[in-house]
Amino acid sequence: MTATASPERTESTGKPRPSQRGDRAFAAIVRVAAFMILAALVAVFVFLAIEGWSGFTDVPETYAPFTSFLTYIEPLVVSTILASAIAVIVAVPFSIGIALFISHYAPRRLSAVLAYLVDLLAAVPSVVFGLWGGRYLAAYLQPMQVWLHDHFGFLPFFGPGPPTPNGRSLFTAGIVLAIMILPIITAITREVFVQTPRLHEEAALALGATRWEMVRYAVLPYARSGMVSAIMLGLGRALGETMAVAMVLATTPETTLNVIGVASPPTIAANIALNYKEATPQRQSLLIATGLVLFVATFLVNYVARWVAGRNARKMAR
Amino acid sequence: MSGAAMQIASPRLPRWAPGLVGVMALAVAGLPAILSGWGVVAWLLAALLVFAVAMPLWSRLVEGRRAAVDRLVTTLVWASFVFAVSPLIWVLWVVVSQGLPAINVDFLTTSMLNVIGDEQGGIYHALLGTLLVTLAATIISVPIGILTAIYLVEYGARSRAARTITFLVDVMTGIPSIVAGLFALSLFVLIFGPAYRSGFGGAVALSLLMIPTVVRSSEEMFRLVPSDLREASYALGVPKWRTILRVVLPTSIGGVVTGVVLAISRVIGETAPLLVVAGATDGVNTNLFDGRMTTLPVFIFSQYSSSTPIGYERAWGGALVLIVLVMVLNLIARIIGRIFAPAKGH
After folding, report:
1. How far apart are CA A222 and CA A312, in angstroms?
2. Which of B37, B156, B220, B279 suits a disulfide with B197, CB 3.0-4.6 Å?
3. Which of B130, B112, B129 is nearest to B121 (CA)?
4. Nearest to A135 among B67, B176, B312 (CB)
């Protein structure tokens, strides 16, 4: 390029080859921004580890009423798994139903509005769900939990202790979590459902398949790994969701599998939120240590979910 | 879309069949509902059950097994949608009906400073806190987010680094908000000592949650910009960076702004990270860098935790204000998106 040819040259500052210098500077800035994201992820891990490290192996008093990190976190882990399991079990059938409804069953003109409604559900702040769950849903679900206790009390999840008197149990918390993860599972499954090749669907219908047979033999097999990844992303959300559990659950330190009992241990995330205010520095390290455990767990779940989704996308590209 | 218009040899139920069965199911379920005094919800549930049995049964008798299964699934799919929307409506209804009585001018313009017992008190300090923290988070995340998106679309192309970053951004969207809060806390505690709490820490935590959403939405928008536009610009001798700033960015600005506003509406309701790192206080604090700072979600949580009638009332009032904020932001995002809709085809 010669110095006289470019009209751009006359507009800009007039220094020699400013465009190249500008290009180089801009490319550098952009790169720095992108790598800051990598740095942020590493930083999350590093800082949690630095601050939380002493929380893993402190003197027994720190873990009162327990004596070591493992015994401290065990009830929290059990509750976290139970609450997330309830959330996923309840949310998945509904999410897939809604996704199918929007992608294949609803009248064309309606489906955009319906998708928007589901997105609105995602926009409701978690603290509002917690408020509603604690003040309304808990009382509403209480009779149902008594019923579960009466009829399925022989299962470890619904017995042997008395059922919750006010509904503020892990079960209710799990239902609130289910409502909160429903939008993300729906959104992702809907996306894969919509991508089903039109030709497959038309071919199925042309062979005389009913709509359900078309969905079952053309849409679902195509979307299977997308659905798996959506469910795992939902699980990741449920594992880390804090406020709904912190506001709904009546807590006790004792490990229990009973999800409709009078009280349960909080989930890891809710435990942090509930105990943060009164924490001594040692206790603070302990809470950060549990936060690190939660971070690693959700990171792994999300990692696998995205990996499955990515593999799926690559498979489709072929 | 289905075979209604198709000529099929086997007999089919008339198009008004579901409607008829629906009305009859409501009537059949209505009888015990009136006799034993069920609520509306129980009545509708019973009606749904009757419908889910009767419709496939009739279909089975007339149309055969396959059609009956199809009818059953259609019923379930519709029902699942109604089920999922009902909590949304319930939540919104409760928030509006419980929140409205709590809201008045005092509620919006006073703080909780020196408010004892059943005195009114207000959310002014929390509103201010939410505004400041969210603003700071936006200022941090928007440049990083947009520049990263530019890197991914314009520079990274299909390089390994870009793919890794895209992947990690996706993974990052799943970081639990409380972990983001703990991260910000660890960072600042390490620098300023164990008692440090500030609104800025909250902003750092929120930007960790906000950046991935901004990256994803702007990336999508930049990819929508037709490459002819870029090539035309290059052909005129415009350097790459000016092409990006003068052609790519202006073309996609509507979508980018929409994405940013949606990201703001997402983090404005975050509670857990702010609870941990920004803490709570009763008075107004406008200094982001020093001292505890109440935000609206944390205000709702602490009023709820007080477990008093007046506390609940304040919590509902705060919840209504928060929901209105989120909905207004959503609406703004939609309007901007509509106005600056990217010109497909040119």
Report:
1. 10
2. B279
3. B112
4. B312
